[in-house]
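User: Teach me something about this protein's shape.
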Amino acid sequence: MKLNILPIGSCRVHRPFHSSYKGNVYSNVLDEIAVCYPKIGFFHSLKEIEQALLFLKRGRVFLDGYEHLREFLFRAEPARTTPYNVFDKKIISHSDLSFEIDKVDVLFIEVSSLNYFHHIESSLSLHWNPNFSINASYGDIYPEGFYSKYYPELNVEKKKLSFNDVVVILENIRKSFPDKLVVVTSHINDSASKTRVELANLLKEAVILIGRPDEMVFYDNIEVFKRFGYAFNGKVDVHHLSRVGEQQVGLDVQNLILKRMLHD
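Assistant: First, the predicted structure itself:
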């Protein structure tokens, strides 16, 4: 019987399992593992991830009268980005989700940023860069943000999670999925980036403070980055590990999970 992993975050936690390269799809999944893709896109902040996990748990995108915000909750990435996690566009017109999260054994969560976009009236966490009405690049929305630039009338504020906020959210996720191992990781932990180092350290400290090592663990990608570096496509891509680095992350995480769940 295989262990089922749900990766949720950006492509940085999807491509370590399956990736597309020069038109071919490559699997990096061990025999004992199955990767379950929810097909609801990528997320950057822990608030977005918490909200998406609650949607999956309830099997429904619940908006409580704020249906007009649905298109701002998600982002559809190109199919080639993660070939088995192609966004299910029915979500933009229907509330029901078909993904069976009860069958998942492990949540693999990547937090890219402590910043998030808070819709004041509804308290929903909106996506950093939704692309259903306007398909803007991340460069287009820097530094003011998508909502300040394109939808100021929505009354969205950019906020930043504190350490205590992160502890509370991670603990809520752990309690919401008591039968699952939660593996938390951060953006690429590059010592040259103060922001990324602080993020990784904060997440690690939060997991330690929660103190449930059998239920929640932090995976630090710093050693993989030191060994394999960034991707290079004519220039250095500081947002992605090299292909061999991504593969190593996948192997590291799978072996960590197998050790925790099968051999302890």
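Now, about its shape. The radius of gyration is 18 Å. Residues 3-133+160-263 form a domain with the Rossmann fold fold (CATH 3.40.50). If you'd like, I can walk through any region in more detail.
User: That's plenty for now, thanks!
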